[in-house]
Amino acid sequence: MAHAAFVIHSRPYRETSQLVEVFTREQGRQSLVARGSRQPRSSLKGLLQPFVPLRLGFAGKGELKNLHHAEATAPAIRLTGTALYSGLYLNELIYYLLETQTPFDEVFDAYHDTLKKLANGDGIEPCLRHFEFYMLNILGYGVDFTQDARSGSAVCPEGWYQYQPESGFIALAKHEPGAYPGDHLYALAELDLSRAEVLVSAKRFSRQALGPYLGGRTLRSRALFIKGKRGSRSE
């Protein structure tokens, strides 16, 4: 059986092979051995790269399977600059948040669509926030933005709220550093990111909500993005 897939990470293995992490539509995240893929004349050389739509054939009984066949089904999705770092960030979310060998066909489609939007020049921040919110909801980590997690009452648009991880938003007696305005929460519930200040709140919430599930890791894509920004400023 062939599988629609994207490579999300790879590394050298032994002298001529690679260990490749792929995200497939039919069987979720899989770990594969691509034997001989680093040999000069390998048909896989240059193919097992991020953002290339692939069709793969693989087999094996354990968690580490053998890659038997790979072909591109479309040209590589071209990402440059900040969009490239954003694509790598999506790959890290897939790698760290999804358990292996579990189908997530809807996530696969959302991931593919987000890559295409980034390549087409859509706003990077809204694209990432939409995908992050989708991931939180599909994995059961989402929250109700319109209800006070402590009292159960409706969020007041004029009030201030504090986010408590894995619980939700709690009303505050007054504004405190890091508090969320109630009207921002209603906008987040509708994924209305048209206001710049709401977009800032969306990013802060995503960082807080995803943090516990990323295990406190410093994501490589963020480090590369920061390094790239520093490099561009020094030019």
Helix/strand layout:
Elements: E1 2-13, E2 17-24, E3 28-34, E4 54-59, E5 64-72, H1 81-97, H2 105-119, H3 124-138, E6 160-164, E7 168-172, E8 180-181, H4 182-189, H5 196-210, H6 220-234
Helix pairs in contact: 1-2, 1-3, 1-6, 2-3, 3-5, 4-5
Keywords: DNA damage, DNA recombination, DNA repair
Family: Belongs to the RecO family.
Protein name: DNA repair protein RecO
Description:
With 235 residues, the protein is an alpha+beta fold. Among the domains are: 2-72, OB fold (Dihydrolipoamide Acetyltransferase, E2P) (Beta Barrel); 81-140 and 212-234, de novo design (two linked rop proteins) (Up-down Bundle). Helix content is 36%, strand content 23%. It contains six helices and eight strands, in the order βββββαααβββααα. It has helices at 81-97, 105-119, 124-138, 182-189, 196-210, 220-234, and strands at residues 2-13, 17-24, 28-34, 54-59, 64-72, 160-164, 168-172, 180-181. A five-stranded mixed barrel has the order 1-2-3-5-4. A three-stranded antiparallel sheet has the order 7-6-8. The chain is elongated. It starts with a strand and ends with a helix. 26% of the residues are buried. The mean pLDDT is 92. This is DNA repair protein RecO. Belongs to the RecO family. Involved in DNA repair and RecF pathway recombination. Keywords: DNA damage, DNA recombination, DNA repair. It holds the Pfam family RecO_C.
Entry keywords:
235 residues; alpha+beta; OB fold (Dihydrolipoamide Acetyltransferase, E2P); de novo design (two linked rop proteins); five-stranded mixed β-barrel
